[in-house]
Design a protein that fits this description.
The complex is a heterodimer of chains A (469) and B (277). Chain A has 13 helices and 15 strands. Chain A has two domains: 137 residues, no CATH class; 222 residues, Vaccinia Virus protein VP39 (Rossmann fold), CATH 3.40.50.150. With 469 residues, chain A is an alpha/beta fold. In chain A, the strands form three sheets. Chain A has an eight-stranded mixed sheet, with helices on both faces. A five-stranded antiparallel sheet of chain A has the order 2-1-7-5-6, with helices on one face. In chain A, strands 3-4 form a two-stranded antiparallel sheet. The longest helix of chain A is centred in the C-terminal third of the chain and has 39 residues. Chain B is flat and about 85 Å long. Among the domains of chain B are: 63 residues, Vcp-like ATPase, Chain A, domain 2 (Roll); 109 residues, Rossmann fold. In chain B, strands 2-1-6-5 form a four-stranded antiparallel sheet, covered by helices on one side. Chain B has a four-stranded parallel sheet with strand order 9-8-7-10, covered by helices on one side. Chain B contains eight helices and 13 strands. By secondary structure, chain B is of the alpha/beta class. Classes of the chains: A alpha/beta (469), B alpha/beta (277). At the A-B interface, helix 4, helix 5, helix 6, helix 13 and strand 13 of A face strand 6, helix 3, helix 4, helix 7 and strand 11 of B. Strand 13 of chain A pairs antiparallel with strand 11 of chain B, so a sheet runs across the interface.
Chain lengths: 469, 277
C-alpha cells in the first residue's frame, strides 16, 4: 500500500471533526468548530489552528488561546551528569525548600515563560534538589511537568480513548463500566461485521458506539430503549462516517411484549380523508414546502373570506399551522416506518448477539430480550453489582436454553516501568463492574424444569486431613 | 460456517464445537460418513450433524446428549490443539480494544503460535482488513495456514514462515497495529518500554489483566443451638418445651465462591502509539 499524500487525509484533523483532547491521563471529547472557545484543564483555547494537522499532534497553548504545534523533544531530559545525592536521610521536608513564591511563579507565567523554562526556574530555586537521588529528581521533574506544561494532544476518537475518558470523567453516566470490562464484553459477545446485534444500554451511548465501531458499518444494530427515546450522545463522539447510521435501528421496549405476542401493528393508519394527505406526504417527502402549501389550499378555500390585511395575516397563520401539522405527520410516518423496520429485524428471533449494560435490573431485561436471539449465539450482561447477575444466572438455569454461563469480573493493574523502579501501580480492584456471559442453545420443549445434568461440578468436600495445618 | 460469519445450519466441511458440559467442549470437523466418539456415545455426522441447526441438542448412541455450537474465536481458544502456550480470551479482549482493532484494520503479528489470538484478530478485522502473521517454526506455520483455510478465513491472512527479527513481517508501511509476543518478559518489558520511547512512541503503558470467576452456589450455613431460651413464655411445662420444634437448623444463601484455583498471572501487556508524522 503506497503511502502518498492522498492517504493522509484520513489522518488529518478537519473542521467539524469530533476529537478528543488529551493531557497526561485526562481526556475530553469536543467538536472542532471555528472560533469556538474550548475549556480543558483550566485553560481555554481555540482549535482553529489544529485543522489540517495530523491527529496525535501535540500543541502548546500560547497567549491568546492559540495552538502551536510543539517542536519535537526540544531539549528533553539532557542526561548531563547532574549533581545528585544518595539517599534522603538529610532532607527535611519543611515546605521551605522552594525559594520562589506563588506570586513569583505567576509572574513568570505572565511573562510568557514556557513550561520547560518555569520548571528549570523551580529547580534552580530549590535548595534540596541537588541532594535528591537521581530517581527523586526525575520524579520531581515529572510532577512539575504535569503541573506547568501547557500542552494538549488532539486524538482521533476510538472506543479505547472514549471508554477511558468516560470512566475517568463521568463514571456515573456509564454505570461505572471500566474500559477493560467493556473490552471483555465486546469480545465475549463476538461483535463483528455483518451480524445483527441487540443493545440495551444506559451508558450515554458509549456501549452502543463501541459495538458500532466493531461492526464497521456492516450488519445491523438494534438499540432497545426504555422511555421516550434512545440516548445516543456518546455515539456522536466516535465521529463515525454518516453511513454507519444506516445500520443503526431503535425499538422501544414498551412494545416488546406486543411484538413477541405478534400483536404489534406497525402498518400505516387509515382513519379518514387525512390518510390521503399523509400518504401523499409519504411519497413526496422530499418536496417539503411547496407540498405543504398545496395541502393548505383546500382549507384555505373553506375559510370565510373577509377583506383586509387581517385576512391575509390570518391566512398565513393558517398556512403555517398547516405546514407544521404536515411536518408532524411526516415525522410520525417516518417514525412508524422506522419502528416497522426494527420490528421486521426483530420478529425473526434470529439476532446474533445481545449486549446489556444499564442501571435497570438486568434480570427482566435479559429474560425479555433473550427471546430475540437465534440458538448458538452469545450474550453478555453487565451490572455494576454482582447480586442481580446471580439472580440472572439462577433464572437462566431454571429456564434452560442457555449454556456456558459465567459470572466474572476483571482486575486491571498498571505498572510503572523504569530502570530499577518497575513495580505495579494502584490496583483497580472492584469498581469495574461484573459481567455475566453465556451462549443460547435450542430450547428443549421436552425437558422438565431444572437441568438434567449439573452444569458445574459440585463443590468438592475437603477431607480434614487435607487441610493445611 | 466461518469464523468471521455466522450461518444457521451445519454443513459438510464445517468445523463445529461439541459442548458436553461445563468446561468440556471439543472441536469437530464435520464430514459425511464420519463419526465422533464422546463419553455419551457416538455422534454420526451424516444423521446427527449435517443439516441440523447450530445450537441443536444431539442425542448420542449411548443415550446421553450434547449441544453443537457454531464456532467462534472464543470457543476455539478453549478447544484448539495447543502447539504452544496460548493467549486466553481475557488478554485477547484487552489487546483487541487497546490496539483499536476494527473492520478494515491491517495487523502484523509475531509469532502465530497456535493461532488463538490470530483467530480473534481475523474475526475483528473482517471483511476488509488483513493479518500478516509470522511464525519461525515451519510445522506450526503450516498447521496455522491449514486451520485458517479450514475455518474459511484464509483470504484475510498471510502466514509467513520466517524469523521476524531478521526478515520482518514481509510488509512495510501498512500496519494499523502490531502485536509482538516476546519471551523473557522480566527483561523484555523494560527494554521494550525504553525502545518504544526512543522510537517516538507515546502513551506507553504496561498492564496486567486478571480474570476473576464467580461460581454461583447455594450454601447452607448451620445455625448454632444455644439451648432453650429460659426467658421464653412456655417454660412451665418441661414436656412442652421438649416437644417444641427447633428453629431452622440452617439457612441457605445464594452467593458466589471463587474456584479452587485461579490463574494469577498470564502475561504483561505493553501498549504504545506511534503518532503519524
Amino acid at each position: 500500500m503506497a503511502d502518498n499524500g492522498d492517504d493522509d487525509a484520513q489522518y488529518r484533523i478537519k473542521g467539524g471533526d469530533y476529537v478528543v483532547l488529551k493531557r497526561g491521563d485526562i481526556f475530553k471529547a469536543v467538536q472542532i468548530q471555528p472560533k469556538k472557545k474550548v475549556i480543558f484543564e483550566k485553560q481555554w483555547f481555540f482549535l482553529d489552528n489544529a485543522v489540517d494537522h495530523l491527529y496525535s499532534t501535540t500543541f502548546e497553548i500560547v497567549s491568546g488561546g492559540v495552538l502551536q504545534p510543539k517542536k519535537l523533544k526540544d531539549a528533553e531530559s539532557s542526561t548531563d551528569t547532574k549533581e545528585a545525592g544518595t539517599d534522603n536521610r538529610n532532607i527535611v521536608d519543611d515546605g521551605k525548600s522552594q525559594k520562589l513564591t506563588r506570586d513569583d511563579i505567576e509572574t513568570l507565567k505572565e511573562q510568557g515563560l514556557k513550561g520547560q523554562e518555569i520548571i528549570q526556574q523551580l529547580i534552580d530555586n530549590s535548595s534540596t534538589f541537588k541532594d535528591k537521588t537521581e530517581y527523586a529528581q526525575d520524579k520531581y521533574i515529572k510532577k512539575k511537568k504535569k503541573k506547568y506544561e501547557n500542552t494538549v494532544t488532539i486524538l482521533k476518537p476510538s472506543c479505547r480513548i472514549l471508554a477511558m475518558m468516560y470512566h475517568g470523567r463521568e463514571p456515573g453516566k456509564i454505570c461505572h463500566l471500566r474500559y477493560d470490562t467493556l473490552a471483555q464484553m465486546l469480545t465475549l459477545a463476538n461483535i463483528h461485521a455483518g451480524s445483527k446485534v441487540l443493545v440495551f444500554e444506559t451508558c450515554a451511548g458509549l456501549v452502543l458506539g463501541a459495538v458500532m465501531e466493531r461492526m464497521g458499518g456492516y450488519g445491523s444494530v438494534i438499540q432497545m430503549y426504555p422511555g421516550g427515546g434512545p440516548v445516543r450522545a456518546g455515539v456522536e463522539s466516535f465521529g463515525f462516517p454518516a453511513h454507519f447510521h444506516d445500520m443503526l435501528h431503535e425499538f422501544p421496549i414498551c412494545h416488546v411484549n406486543a411484538l413477541l405476542a405478534g400483536t404489534l401493528d406497525t402498518t400505516a393508519k387509515e382513519p379518514s380523508a387525512d390518510s390521503k394527505q399523509s400518504t401523499v406526504a409519504e411519497e413526496k417527502e422530499k418536496q417539503n414546502q411547496p407540498e405543504a402549501e398545496q395541502q393548505g389550499s383546500p382549507e384555505e378555500q373553506n375559510m370565510e373570506t373577509n377583506s383586509g390585511a387581517d385576512d391575509l395575516e390570518k391566512e398565513q397563520k393558517e398556512k403555517r399551522k398547516e405546514a407544521k401539522a404536515q411536518e408532524k405527520k411526516v415525522k410520525l410516518e417516518e417514525k412508524r416506518k422506522k419502528l416497522a423496520a426494527a420490528a421486521a429485524l426483530l420478529e425473526g428471533r434470529n439476532a446474533d448477539g445481545l449486549v446489556i449494560a444499564s442501571r435497570f435490573h438486568p434480570c427482566p431485561v435479559l429474560m425479555g430480550l433473550l427471546k430475540f436471539l437465534a440458538p448458538s449465539r452469545p450474550f453478555v450482561v453487565y451490572s455494576q453489582y454482582k447480586e442481580p447477575l446471580i439472580e440472572c444466572y439462577t433464572k437462566l438455569k431454571e429456564q434452560g436454553g442457555t449454556i456456558s454461563l459465567r459470572l466474572t469480573d476483571t482486575w486491571l493493574r498498571h505498572y510503572q516501568v523504569l530502570p530499577n523502579r518497575t513495580h505495579p501501580l494502584l490496583l483497580m480492584s472492584g469498581g469495574g463492574g461484573y459481567v455475566l456471559s453465556g451462549t443460547t442453545v435450542a430450547m428443549d420443549r421436552s425437558k422438565s424444569a431444572g437441568s438434567q445434568r449439573a452444569e458445574e461440578p459440585a463443590p468438592k468436600r475437603l477431607k480434614l486431613t487435607d487441610t493445611e495445618g | 460456517m466461518s469464523f468471521v460469519e455466522y450461518s444457521d445450519f451445519i454443513q459438510d466441511g464445517d468445523v463445529a464445537i461439541v459442548y458436553l458440559g461445563h468446561d468440556s467442549m471439543m472441536p469437530v470437523k464435520v464430514q459425511k460418513g464420519a463419526q465422533t466418539q464422546t463419553r455419551y456415545g457416538v455422534i454420526r455426522h451424516s444423521t446427527d450433524l449435517i443439516g441440523q441447526r447450530y445450537g441443536s441438542k444431539v442425542t448420542c448412541s449411548k443415550g446421553g446428549w450434547v449441544h453443537v455450537l457454531h464456532p467462534t474465536p472464543e470457543l476455539w481458544t478453549v478447544t484448539l490443539p495447543h502447539r504452544t502456550q496460548i493467549l486466553y480470551t481475557t488478554d485477547i479482549a484487552t489487546i483487541t480494544m487497546m490496539l483499536e482493532l476494527k473492520p478494515g484494520s491491517v495487523v502484523c503479528e509475531s509469532g502465530t503460535g497456535s493461532g488463538s489470538l490470530s483467530h480473534a484478530i481475523l474475526r475483528t478485522i473482517a471483511p476488509t482488513g488483513h493479518l500478516h502473521t509470522v511464525e519461525f517454526h515451519q510445522q506450526r506455520a503450516e498447521k496455522a495456514a491449514e486451520e485458517f483455510k479450514e475455518h474459511r478465513v484464509d483470504h484475510l491472512v498471510t502466514v509467513r514462515n520466517q524469523d521476524v527479527c531478521k526478515d520482518g513481517f514481509g510488509v512495510t508501511g501498512v500496519a494499523d497495529a502490531v502485536f509482538l509476543d516476546i519471551p523473557s518478559p522480566w527483561e523484555a518489558v523494560q527494554r521494550t518500554c525504553e525502545a518504544l520511547a526512543d522510537q517516538g512512541f507515546e502513551e506507553i503503558s504496561t498492564v496486567e489483566v486478571l480474570l476473576r470467576v464467580h461460581d454461583v452456589r447455594n450454601v447452607s450455613l448451620p445455625l448454632p443451638d444455644f439451648g432453650p431460651d429460659p426467658s421464653s413464655q412456655t417454660e412451665s411445662d418441661a414436656a412442652a418445651a421438649e416437644k417444641a420444634p427447633p428453629n431452622h437448623a440452617s439457612v441457605t444463601i445464594k452467593t458466589t465462591t471463587p474456584p479452587r484455583e485461579i490463574p494469577g498471572h498470564t502475561g504483561y501487556l505493553t501498549f504504545a502509539t506511534k503518532p503519524r508524522t
